[in-house]
Specification:
Elements: H1 8-21, H2 35-42, H3 50-55, H4 62-65, H5 73-76, E1 82-85, E2 88-91, H6 104-127, H7 146-152, H8 154-160, H9 175-178, H10 181-194, E3 199-202, E4 213-215, E5 220-222, H11 229-232, E6 237-241, E7 246-250, E8 255-256, E9 259-260, H12 267-271, E10 275-277, E11 284-289, E12 305-309, H13 312-328, E13 336-341, E14 344-350, E15 356-357, H14 358-364, H15 377-388, E16 398-400, E17 407-409, H16 433-440, H17 444-451, H18 457-470
Parallel strand pairs: 2-3, 3-5, 4-9
Antiparallel strand pairs: 1-2, 4-5, 6-7, 7-8, 10-11, 11-12, 12-14, 13-14, 15-16, 16-17
Length: 477
């Protein structure tokens, strides 16, 4: 509800009023704490606008209004961190692995007590002159000396170091919304089971397409659509849940699509002949797709795609990489089909809009955070490259989608063959635990069914030999 705008107080007043009015109409309004509510309570005011400070003057200013006994602070302190309604969890950030050690009641009780202790002890320490009035209480113990920690006291230090309040707690954790599906799925599965739920609804992480997204087999719904338009350029959306279904609505109450991830591969469109070549360079030619209603070719096309001219052998290897990638659920290789266009033979590839290579990321110093708690999708990439025998992964054939920063990899035809020795790589050889079982399930029978039209039996056997070496790698935590 708070920050980056001038009307946070009005937003709180509205929800407080609706909370009290709803029972008289046979309903309930549940309000959850988010990370920005926590920030305002603890004194992290970096996103509080001048207008917000002015709006709280009649309550004695921001500090008084958000104190543990203040008008808004006392209300916020009684809000839950997480609730469950009819088997669906609701929490602001996500489901970090730490939650497996708590019941739902313990999450709320422990987090609320830690927060209350932080605020009451923090106020005492400020009044005693031990802490400056403008310091963020959650950062007060960072790099503190032993003498300072002793002065702060054990109660305050313990609350400030609370896992539930910290950067990997449920108000801040982005992995449920943004970590790679293969890596996040086991953790979400375990936490949902531990908390007796089937699904979870989260906010906090604005979706790339500014629509409600479903992921992890419709068990996670990410509903932050960036509706604060002046900052996030998004859309107001709501998720309506009934006994019959879940659906997304716009501000006018009209149904809009939910984007379920990962998106379905656009194979039908790739397989069609309803495209033509544009002028291209370096053997990769952009495609223009025809409007199915008019038959006219539009400059943007309905699907970003490219045609890569390749020999028959290389085209087969490119397709083999795509099929194997999907079999393992990694989804880093763009959808690919072997096609001939005119007298040219090669592969048609579904290519994301304006991707950029790792070389550009390095040169432009673009930060790419790792939102996963247990691992990184680079570990998935390292394992996949080792599996297919990719020897020349570089900053020029490793790409990122704009917005999502999802990895997309090319030049996969320079792989396979009969070598059984794993290629050297700069990436750390750590096997994600979530990939262990999918790799172990590969055998000559199912790989032959998957790849026999593309690879020779001895190439498939070499792939299995490389797999046997990969499963001996150290496991991720």
């Amino acid at each position: 509800l708070l920050d980056r705008g001038p009307q946070s107080r009005k937003a709180m007043d509205l929800l407080m009023r609706l909370q009290s009015q709803a029972p008289d109409s046979g309903g309930r309004v549940h309000v959850l704490l988010g990370n920005h509510e926590l920030m305002n309570l603890s004194g992290d005011l970096r996103d509080v606008s001048d207008a917000e400070h002015a709006a709280l003057a009649d309550l004695g200013g921001h500090a008084a209004a958000f104190a543990h006994d203040g008008h808004y602070g006392s209300w916020l302190l009684n809000l839950p961190f997480m609730i469950r309604i009819n088997g669906i969890l609701f929490t602001h950030g996500g489901l970090p692995p730490m939650l497996d050690d708590f019941s739902l009641a313990e999450i709320n009780e422990t987090a609320r007590q830690d927060l209350r202790t932080l605020l009451t002890e923090g106020q005492r320490l400020r009044e005693a002159g031990v802490l400056a009035g403008e310091i963020d209480l959650l950062s007060a113990t960072y790099e503190a000396s032993d003498e300072t920690l002793a002065a702060l006291g054990a109660k305050f230090v313990s609350a400030a170091d609370s896992k539930l309040l910290g950067a990997q707690g449920p108000l801040w954790y982005r992995g449920t919304a943004a970590c790679h599906e293969v890596l996040e799925n086991p953790g979400v599965t375990a936490t949902l089971a531990a908390l007796n739920a089937q699904k979870v609804v989260v906010g906090h992480t604005p979706t790339a397409n500014r629509e409600i997204n479903g992921r992890l087999n419709k068990r996670v719904y990410v509903i932050d659509t960036g509706m604060l338009a002046q900052v996030y350029k998004g859309n107001p959306r709501m998720l309506e849940i009934t006994a019959a279904r879940l659906r997304a609505l716009d501000a006018g109450g009209e149904e809009v699509p939910i984007t379920h991830l990962p998106a379905a591969d656009p194979l039908l469109q790739l397989a069609s002949d309803n495209y033509q070549l544009q002028e291209g360079a370096q053997g990769i030619t952009p495609l223009t797709f025809a409007d199915p209603a008019t038959g006219n070719f539009e400059s943007d096309g309905a699907l970003p795609g490219v045609f890569r001219k390749l020999s028959k052998r290389d085209a087969r290897r490119a397709i083999a990489a795509y099929r194997l990638d999907r079999e393992l659920g990694i989804n880093m290789v763009p959808a690919s089909l072997q096609r001939n266009i005119g007298k040219q033979q090669g592969v048609v590839i579904a290519w994301p809009h304006r991707p950029f290579p790792e070389s550009t990321r390095q040169q432009s110093n673009i930060r790419r955070p790792n939102w996963c708690a247990r691992d990184s999708d680079f570990s998935l990439l390292a394992a996949f490259d080792a599996l297919i025998g990719k020897t020349d992964r570089s900053a020029n054939n490793l790409f990122y989608e704009r917005g999502t920063m999802n990895i997309r990899i090319t030049e996969n035809f320079n792989a396979f063959g009969t070598a059984t020795k794993l290629p050297q790589t700069a990436m750390q050889r750590v096997l994600p635990r979530a990939l262990q079982d999918p790799l172990q399930r590969l055998n000559m029978e199912n790989l032959s069914t998957l790849l026999q039209d593309l690879l020779k039996p001895k190439e498939i056997q070499a792939l299995l030999n490389r797999r046997d070496a990969i499963v001996l790698w150290p496991r991720s935590q």
